[in-house]
Design brief:
about 180 residues; 8-stranded antiparallel beta barrel; Lipocalin; mainly beta
Length: about 180
């Protein structure tokens, strides 16, 4: 016998082909460098009766970093930054979800980068209304954004400019564009 509670929870898996994680950080205090990680995996346990009782987990493959500059990408993968040999993944696991507007959520959770875990809150637009794809699968999408201080995660490398500024900003904006497919 199925109860209303059993049917209110559904599993949605991240569609890796239609999802990515972007970041933006100041370069030389004058412009932004943007990049992305092209491998995002995870799932959403969606409580369809009360979205605040849902949960989400995501894993990003740090080796997929792409800033459109191969030398910079190699440096970002090195021990100066992500140290992908020791820490090949970035992870997020939600610990709480609250409504923060008509179609917006605040998703709090544990973000782990470079082996360091900190609480962060993602501001989320969505999820969208479920839409059926040409193959009969239900899909939803969302965009989640947060800002972190990279030094809080042990990413401390920097260079000092002769003008007194720094080469790489400390504040990093992270944006996830995620498409989920409902598990049958």
């Amino acid at each position: 016998m199925t109860t209303a509670t059993d049917t209110a929870i559904s599993t949605w898996n991240i569609d890796t082909a239609h999802s990515n994680a972007q970041f933006k950080v100041k370069h030389m205090m004058i412009s932004n460098v943007k990049g992305e990680f092209t491998s995002v995996k995870g799932s959403l346990q969606l409580n369809e009766a009360d979205i605040t009782k849902s949960s989400v987990e995501a894993t990003i493959d740090a080796t997929t970093i792409n800033t459109r500059e191969p030398q910079r990408d190699t440096h970002l993968k090195s021990p100066d930054f992500f140290d992908v040999e020791k820490f090949p993944e970035l992870t997020f696991k939600s610990t709480g979800i609250a409504k923060s507007g008509e179609a917006e959520l605040a998703v709090e959770g544990d973000l782990t980068i470079h082996g360091v875990t900190r609480k962060v809150t993602f501001e989320v637009e969505g999820p969208s209304v479920a839409t059926k794809d040409p193959w009969g699968n239900l899909r939803i999408g969302l965009e989640a954004t947060t800002k972190i201080n990279r030094k809080d995660f042990g990413l401390v490398w920097n260079g000092v400019l002769e003008t007194g500024g720094i080469l790489v900003g400390e504040e990093v904006t992270i944006t996830l564009d995620v498409e989920f497919v409902k598990q049958a």
